[in-house]
Amino acid sequence: MTERRAFRPHRHAPAKSLRDFDMQGGMAVSFPSRSGERLSGYYAPPRQGAAVVLAHGSCGERSDLFDEARILARAGFGVLIFDFPGHGESEGAVSWDAAAREALSGAFDWLAEQPGVDPARLGAFGFSMGGYTVAQVAATDSRLRAVVLAGTPHDAAEHTRWEYRRGGWLRQGPALLAARLSGLRFDELVPERVLDRVAPRPLLVVTGSRDRAVPPWMAERLYSAAREPKRLLVVEGARHGDYSEASGATYARELCDFFATLAA
Fold first, then answer.
1. Which helix (H) or strand (E) holds 177?
2. Which domain holds residue 86?
3. Taking the CB of the first residue and of the last residue of the chain, which one, N or C, has fewer CB atoms within 10 A?
């Protein structure tokens, strides 16, 4: 069924290689999730101690966030982009539940131990369902000192019902079932309900004005749920994730200015 494939995508290798990553000191790495799976990624070390983990969305892999990784690496931040379990070259099965959170926590465990990385200056950038997981982890892990949620649903159940709204329950029911079978717990650490726990750490919510997958009103729900310090960035003309293409240098500057709090 179409809904099942949306939550259990066919696994594929990263679309771009380490050569495409093209970051100074960039290397292919692997590290364990806290649940034991071996995860694969690319890493570039920092020039000033601060480092950011970037988390891709569903049906994606690490190279989806090359634009953001390059922006931050060229500004001197360490960057780690990795494949969630069952995606790209990582072990395990696709599951957007505790396994995804344990994978993200494993990424922070590994990053905090790298030479030149200050474990008190770690940030996170999460896109789409990766942002969903980042929001969940940030609510309970104080190591994340600055958090960006881009194209991120505020509530997985409500987003699924909205995404499959055409056709009513005949489409929504199978989609909700597929999401549950993928491991999503609709009542567990819903970002809109837990995002207030991120404060007083800074939060940036990013959306594209033309995003039809996770529309701007969902970003507004996240922003409203959070406490200060927080900011909502609407990238004019952007769809679901093409923020650099739509905004270029402006988006790059916004990201670097936000994560500059880690370098302070």
1. helix 169-181
2. 2-263
3. C
